[in-house]
Structure formats: C-alpha cells, structure tokens
Amino acid sequence: MGIITNKEARILPMWKCRDFGAILFMRNRYYVQPLTEQIFLIRERQSASGGPGPNDRLVRSFSVRHDAYMFVGKMNTEDAEQNAQAEKSQL
Length: 91
Hints:
The structure is a single chain. The protein is of the alpha+beta class. The protein has one domain (6-90). It contains 4 helices and 3 strands, in the order H-H-H-E-E-E-H. The radius of gyration is 14 Å and the shape is flat. The relative contact order is 0.14.
C-alpha cells in the first residue's frame, strides 16, 4: 500500500489504519503533527471526539521524524500503563 499521506489518513476508516505504525499514534493521547519536512510537533489530544483538533496542547517539537515518533510511542506506552494501574486500583 505504500506511504499514506495526512490527507489519506483522515479519510481511511479506522480499521484500515491499525496496520500502520505512524497512524497508530493518532488514536492515542499523544500524536505527531508534521509541520514541515524538518519540523515535527508533539501534541496532546484535547478534543472530545478523539481526533486531532486545533486546541490540542503543544508538548514538544523535534527536527528528526524518527525521534518524534519514538517520543510519542514512549509517552503513549507510559500513559497506557498508568491507565491500567489506575483501573486495577479501582477494583
């Protein structure tokens, strides 16, 4: 299928997006927003709909794409672990 552009990612059904690592992060709390070919913003999802929104908080910026996605992966993993621990403590 090749590389998916941002425009294509917005129109693909979610079940088709699950196989692509870059899009996987869009479903989580933190995501990468490519601003230019050399600037990648890390944003924290704020919208109630669950999608990226204009009011999402800017967390950090990177000049290397790989570093941005590694950071987002780590942040989302830590967030998922904290949520799992919170759910266990409520039981």
